[in-house]
Amino acid sequence: MSSKTKITLFSLTLVALLVVTGVNVYSAMAGDDEGESVSHDQMQEMMQANQQLENEVERLENEQEMEEPAAMQERQEALQEALQETAATFVETVYTEDAETYEDRKDEAETIMQDNLHGFLFSEDEQEETENRAIAEDAHFFAETGELNQSEATIMARFTQTYSTGSAEDSTLTFIELDAEQQEDGSWIIQDFRDAVESMEGEGDA
Description:
Blueprint: H1 3-30, H2 40-94, H3 102-110, H4 115-121, E1 132-143, E2 152-165, E3 168-182, E4 188-195, H5 196-205
Antiparallel strand pairs: 1-2, 2-3, 3-4
Helix pairs in contact: 1-2, 2-3
C-alpha cells in the first residue's frame, strides 16, 4: 500500500473518530433520560481529545501534500532512467558491427524493440565475418517528451560511432531520435527510429 493511500485511510479513520467524539460530547451535554451529565473535567478531557484528533488530521494532510511532489519526482526519475537504459541498449546493439557478437546483440535487441523493427534491423541469422568493425561510444540521451507520465516518449541519442577496417579508423558524430512506448510493467519498447539531423532539416523545409 502506498504512503498516500495509508495517509488517506488514516485520515478517514480520524475523521470518523471526530464524528463519534462530537456525538459523545453532544450526548454528554444533553444528558440521558435520567438527567445524568458529565463533570466539567470530563467535558474538558473530551474536548482536548477532539482537538488532538483535529491536529493529527491536519498534520497528516500537510505531510501528504509534502510527499506528493517528492513521489512524483521519484517516479519521473525512475521512468527517465528506464527510458535511457532502453535507448542505450538500442544504440549498443544496432550501431555495433562485429560478427562475433551479432547473435548476442540480436537476442538482446529483441527485448527492447518492436518485432517488425527487430526483424528489419536483424534480418540475418548471422553476420558475415569481415574486417569491418564499428562501435558506439560516448552516448548521451535527452528525453524530448516533457512529461513521462504518458505511455509514449521520444528520446534523442548523441554518440560517436567509430568505424575501423584493418588499421584505418574513422569516427562520426551521430544523432538519432527514438520513439518509445511504455509497457504495463514500466519498461519501454522502441517503436521506431530516425536520423535526427534529417528529421530537423525536414521540419525546417516544411
